[in-house]
Amino acid sequence: MRKKLFAGIAAGIVAALSVGVPATAATSGNAVLSVLHGIPDTPVDVYVNGALTLDDFQPGDLAGPLDLPAGSYEVALTATDAADDSSPVLGPVSLTLEAGKNYTAVAHLNASGSPTVTPYVNVTSPTAAGQGRLTVRHDAAAPAVDVLAGGTAVIQNLANPQEATLNLPAGTVEASVAATGTTDPVLGPASVDVQEGVLTIAYAWGSLEDDNLALAVQTIGGLHSAPGGVNSGTGGQLAQRDAAQQWMWTIGGVAVAAAVAASALVAVRSRAQR
User: Fold this and answer.
1) What's the gap between Cα 96 and its chain centre?
2) Do 49 and 9 meet the contact criterion of CB atoms below 8 Å apart?
3) Which of 51, 106, 140, 180 is most buried, by the most CB atoms less than 10 A from its CB?
């Protein structure tokens, strides 16, 4: 059973994981945090500052977002039957949260396949009227890719654990993906739906060599700069548990963008094995 994230560590934390927090909802002196488990085949318990805070956290699960006091936290991942955090499978890792920022901490594999934790700062500054924001994060043990628009690489050599962010006019754009350094599409062009005032974050995680690549998506709303914008947050969305299963998307058009990124990784592997 999933427990409250960071319960007992700080007073005033949101009562349960199912409660969403808007992108700009961090109270004074606090930060917003979500946690993605992107290490395949490794359910874990999560300890924060020595206290068990997530029990039996499964690969593919995305917990939060939660409003937390700014400061430093020691995070350790252990086997699910561990009595304490004295023998972690990963960590302890120091995680420093700054007031007013929105974070996603991702436990994932690095480029060589070893487990690691990467904290990302989510760009929640207002988008221009009529625009949305797309961030792509490479958290898989897999090669780098380029993302092409109109035959031009708009995201180049995206490698683990890098990210790239684009501010785009709301609407439908055509994108394709090629192996790094090439312009011959291995997938696409495909239509991508960009939503106004929404940050959509696509994660590729898993292992190319072990054939368990998967996709996750997180959306953070409330980025409207035009009057009447409404804050909303869906950082707690869950995505697929393995490469053969389809993720649950809160915005249908975003599925294409994430699928493009992951399919490119698979295509790169196929080329390497020829």
Assistant:
1) 18
2) yes
3) 140
Task: Look at phi and psi of residue 228 and say left if phi exceeds 0, alpha if psi is from -120 to 50, else beta.
Answer: left
Distances (CA, A) of 174 to 190, 216, 250: 5, 21, 20
* pTM (2 d.p.): 0.72
> Residue-wise pLDDT tens for the chain (274 aa)?
333 333 332 222 222 222 233 344 455 689 999 999 999 999 999 998 999 988 999 999 999 888 889 999 999 999 998 999 999 999 899 999 999 999 999 999 999 999 999 999 999 999 999 999 988 888 988 888 787 777 788 899 999 999 999 998 887 777 766 678 888 765 557 666 779 999 988 888 888 889 887 878 888 999 986 554 443 344 433 333 333 233 333 333 334 344 444 444 444 455 445 5
Look up residue 189 and give its DSSP letter.
Answer: E
DSSP 208: T
Tokens of 196: 């106004």
| 86-91 CB contacts, 8 Å cutoff, 24+ apart | 88/47, 89/42, 89/44, 89/115, 90/39, 90/44, 90/115, 90/116, 90/117, 91/117
| Token pair listed for 83 | 């009595």
